[in-house]
Amino acid sequence: MWKKQVLTLSPQAKLAIENNAKGINSPFVLSAKGTKIGVHNWSHGVKEQSNYYLSPRNAVKVFAEKLTDYSDPQRPQGEQEMVALMVTSGDMDEFIAKLEKVRVLLAEPAFKQALDYAKSSKSLQETKMIKTPTISYPAFGGQADITPSANRAMQSILRNSASGVNAKNIADPMTAIQSLLQKKAEREKQNQQKVTQMLTTSAEVYAFITRGRLEQAEMEMQLNIPSDSNIYTACVLFIGDDLSSIRGMLVDVY
């Protein structure tokens, strides 16, 4: 079932940042492995003088077809965890604003493409409705690293912080320590803006979370789909054994 939620850095990520700022090394799992597919208004390509509409229902229809496509040789088998994140709106400006926030935390190609196309087509007048966008075959890629971009950045930042902390605890010559600390300070300066942006960014999304066989997910995905009045839609479906690092970025809207 689809549910309105807020996308933000996970509590574990925020705690790790705070601890590392205090010189405390706090390793935790940020990565995720699996496969993913994405869809948005312009998935099939865009014409120079056209804009395209895509409702959440038709976006879900694309995923439903792929989840039950037994001819796809790379279709995940057995029990899987699935997390889908949808950005949707009936207003182009609002759609762009939502995508801008989501991309800070989750720079997925589908969201980036949707944002780029939305910006470039914003002023175009001609519109056409897409009933079902096309996704390449096979839809599913092989098992790969699907770690969210914010988590990748966090991994790099935490590694840098950890190396600086370790450097302080090694009885190296003072010049070597000063050199390491200087490099650490430079990295921290470069990372600070990125960290601040990630820490302060949250984005409203519609999320679908389940665990089971793909056929089961296809049926559950039909429940509580966002309104068809939302004509701009971008959605990414993650599939893997353990998507806790992605799931942990979602909190309920109260």
Word description of this protein:
- The chain is α+β, with helices and mostly antiparallel strands and 254 residues long.
- The chain has one domain (2-135, 143-240).
- The protein is 43% helix and 21% strand.
- The protein is built from eight helices and nine strands.
- The protein has helices at residues 11-21, 56-67, 92-105, 109-121, 149-168, 174-200, 214-220, 244-247; strands spanning 2-7, 33-40, 51-53, 80-89, 127-129, 144-145, 203-212, 232-240, 250-252.
- It has a seven-stranded antiparallel β-sheet with strand order 6-2-8-4-7-1-9, with helices on both faces. A two-stranded parallel ribbon has the order 3-5.
- α1 packs parallel to α5 (149-168).
- It is globular.
- It starts with a strand and ends with a strand.
- 35% of the residues are buried.
- Mean pLDDT is 82; it is low at 45-50.
